Amino acid sequence: MLGEKYFQLDMSYWGRSRRLVIQILCIWALVAYGLPALVMETNKMNYLGFPLGYYNCAQVIPLFYGALLLIFNHVQEGIEADQMDGKPMVEAASSAALNAVLMKVYVAYTGGFVSFVLFLGFLEAVGVPHQAIGILFVIFTLGMYAAIGIASRTSKSDDFYVAGRNVPPIFNGMATAADWMSGASFVGMAGTLYALGYDGLAYITGWTGGYVLVSTVIAPYLRRFGSFTVPEFIASRYQGTVQLPGGKIVEVSGVARFLATIVLLSCSFTYLTAQVFSTGVIVSRFIGIQFEVAVFSGLIGVLFCSLLGGMRAVTYTQVAQYVILIIAYTVPAICMSTTQDDGFNKNNPVEFLVYGGTLQAIALREKEMVLLGLASKVTPYLEPKWRRVDFFALTFCLMVGTASLPHVLMRYFTTPSVRSARRSVTWSLGFILVLYMTAPAYAAFAKLEVYTNVIGQPLSVLPQWVFTYGKIGLTSVCGKAVTSVNEAVEACAQATGGDYLLKLKDLKISKDAMVIATPEIAGLPYTIAGLVSAGGLAASLSTADGLLLAISNALSHDIYFRLIDDKASIQKRLLISRVLLVVIALMAAGTAASKPADILSMVAWAFSLAASGNFPALVLGIWWRRANAQGAIAGIICGWGLTLTYLLGTVYGGWELWGGISNVAAAVFGLPVGFAANIIVSLLTAPPPDNVLAMVDSLRDFKVTGEDLTAEELEDIKEKEEALARTQGLQVSNTGEATAEATAEVTAAEASI
């Protein structure tokens, strides 16, 4: 019957997978936008001292994303199991063995780092100068990263570009989290929440929500394709020919590759500059050198890892950096949490459950400061100040940008299989949530400390940290970066320091200083402050590593090798990639030294550029067979071009904001234009060639690869590989996947580098 035809469900692998993705995304969107839309109403209710609306955005929604990915993975793996007639999919023996080895190595590494921190605490107790401790932290961490880079050096192309495609999901998750939690997250997130209050939670809900898109819509399909870079996927997907007016027929995939590389460069270089900037802030503070010098000195650790070992070295360095940054971020928050006694909690170390009473104390202090004349008006910390459309626009751009960033997506090229890629995304979000669940507590504790122990105090008793960060321009009193009480008195035009009580408007703290200054604001030991500096350095350098690789790999592989010299040897390609690493790093350092903007703003620009340039081409390339090369080229030019124009016009050209939408959410204009241009031009031009359609179909089919084989099948393949290697005089790598495909990458040229 007609009804049965229309309502019969597609029970194929692709039909069931597509239906699952749609269901997951509907639930995701409902929670991501439904709960924030009700914030004014739900803030009237309390949970553990928290206004419920604030708590939903700060804690509930990010945790819900993690639970949603667990459900998605479970159901999707069930669909795949059905394709194997119930036969279980076991992990490849080589991957399991590598996982066990890495677990032992990083447990020992973590113990060693904790011992080092305790040793520095002992040095502080016996009177070693603070600056010496700060220098030891910076030197020790940079030295470790350089040592890992040297130990992981490689001359194989698959190791350099994709870490041999054998990184276990849990460690790839840690590396992705470190790659992701840049200076923007570590240094800038809590500072933004400190300054914006509730509105700053748009960054948390947006960035964590983006991983749902990564896992369901993009990452598994890119891993199944098996490319080295995002531009390579776009070039392969968008093949086609165009007849020029003179009758000449040209292939346009090179144009798509070139435009995708331009998008990658624009968003990655902006993001990289932000990381180098935050590195300069940290190194200048804790070593005591000039900011401009600190910016260049911080690149040493980055280049050691990237130059010698490429993605392989960067991956294992980023795992080590995650350990440091998460310890550094959570320890001060836990220390401050245990001092809270607010009627809801007493000495509770679980910081993300404790700060509800702190939020209430902030609200009371805001009213008190107005009554005491310390502030004429205070914007409530817990209430939205932005229009809802502004909050939603930024959230949307950050979500889509997360799913479009090349340096994040390329991390999922390193896993052994498609299933590992999905699991890796879930691990990534889990590790990221540890920091993002802590950031609101961090900001709240710092806010209350400043409101209570700094605002309303005489100038003569201002804490030392105000002057310390004034030296590097991150704090100011009465409009001037002061370095002593006398300078503060002069800035506020008072006869004596004791006569004047500091008002709220008099003190300005840079958002980029908040995290590294909070241990000193809270009166914690200097070793904790040094630990935070080491964590911030790890966060910035780990992301800089990934960004440098993304940029240099795109230029050497997608531009030089694919478009200029397709006969270049592996030695030459790797040499060019390494030279480009140095050049790009120096350019980023030079740009960062000019202090172009605050860290979080620069990062938000990168997300909008990536979203408008990459997302339409990636999503339509996977999910719509009819998308063609002409449509992709039009979509990138229109979407990315409009976003870049709006950014440049509003930041540097003096343009008025369109509809009041901030330039950090610029993709809200470019993204729909990019989709529209891609779809319209694709429909008006010829469909993709048959080989491209076959490739799209292969992305949607279930494949049994590597990790999905049984142990017996893996052993059989391994024996055949070894026999083939003996007959052909080749050496087979024992560290990669156990498939015949891996041996094809091992060439005599690679062995001779």
From TrEMBL:
It is found in: Membrane. Signal peptide: none annotated. PROSITE patterns: NA_SOLUT_SYMP_3 (PS50283). The chain crosses the membrane at residues 20-40, 52-75, 96-120, 132-151, 171-195, 201-222, 255-274, 286-307, 319-339, 391-413, 425-445, 528-555, 575-593, 599-624, 631-652, 664-686. Residues 735-753 have a biased composition (Low complexity). InterPro entries: Na/Glc_symporter_sf, Na/solute_symporter, Na/solute_symporter_VC_2705, Na_symporter_ssu, Sodium:Solute_Symporter. CDD domains: SLC5sbd_u4 (cd11480). One of its GO terms (cellular component) is plasma membrane. One of its GO terms (molecular function) is transmembrane transporter activity. It holds the Pfam family SSF. Keywords: Membrane, Transmembrane, Transmembrane helix, Transport. Coiled coil: none annotated. It is a multi-pass membrane protein. Residues 12-80 form the Sodium symporter small subunit domain. Residues 728-753 are annotated as: Disordered. Belongs to the sodium:solute symporter (SSF) (TC 2.A.21) family. This is Sodium symporter small subunit domain-containing protein. It comes from Polarella glacialis (Dinoflagellate). The lineage of its organism: Eukaryota, Sar, Alveolata, Dinophyceae, Suessiales.
